Amino acid sequence: MKKTTKTKKIQQGTRISLAKSKNHGRIIATPDSDQCLDTAALNRLEQSFRDWVEGSPRADVRFSRQRILIIFLLIRYTGAKLNEVLALNPFVDIDPERHVVLFRGSAAGAGLNQREVQISQALSSELRDILAEPSFHGAPGKVLDVDPGFVRRKFYERTQACEFAKRLGGPEIIRKARAVELMQSNMPLPAVQMMLGHSTPNLTTSYVSFSEDEMQQVAKLFLEKESMRKTSARNSFLGKIRNIKRGDIQSRIDLITIDGFSVTAVITNDSVERLGLQPGMVVTAEVKAPWVMLQNCDTEPECSAENRFKGVISRVTRGEINTECVVRIADGIELCAMVSTAATRHLGLNEGENIWALFNCFSVVLHVD
Hints:
The chain is α+β, with helices and mostly antiparallel strands. The protein is about 35% helix and about 25% strand. Strand 7 (about 250-255) and strand 8 form a beta hairpin. The longest helix is centred in the first third of the chain and has 20 residues, at about 60-80. It starts with 6 loop residues before the first strand and ends with a strand.
């Protein structure tokens, strides 16, 4: 079957494509024409910068290289433009307590498109420790005010040292690679747009609006999860609690996601109290792939599963016993289901087929920050 992709523009020259990938059950994002480094390659490039700093022969050389490392880390993890990073005063614009970076725009356009970008606690602590070193004590506030041409040369040198194509190490391509990485990891598109400083996110839900602070919270939850990676759940939704209906033993929690999907969970009243859940809170709902059921019918299934999503099968990976099916429920949103191989044959599940993905409220696990 010929593979087709749909695209959504998130920045000039870059589109998010829904295509096949080894990252099953994830949002697949690729630039229009420029190849980008994947996560493994980005991590290898990052390690190359770190080794380069550690191999400095003199204190003054180490200081110079540390500045380049800071610039790389900021582009690598915030997706900021090179001129935005070079305009930073890291002693003022990086908040190690709130774990945010304030981008004020380029030096020529300070104050334009100003935005705060969330970073992980681990990165925030590392930047704080680097800036606390004695070599930075007497440095000017604009310690990152480095010649852009010099920065590019060093980026290209490290890229080629890793035996990657030179162009893949340019600051613009690293920025694109970060956008791709975030989308592949299931960060909601509006949050990616906001993080990279693109147009105002187009929230599709008519039930609830996400404020700028709540969007920052979504980014924070995602980035900390990305940093820790302590869950095996394949499917996750970042959403706001719309309603809590309390029963004598358990409570029903209704969520609305940034993408406009409704998700229902039922948990014990004790868990509601322990997590401090209340309407308006932003939480993460996770569902393991084996808990997702598939049904191939044209109309919405009549069943007890509260969460029902109509989609198209975008990938089928068959094994001897079990089969993995990835279902695209909207542009940029996919769910992964694990079903028996016998069932896939019985139901005739193939790529391109319309399908309903279902899971009940008791299969949803809620996480708070």
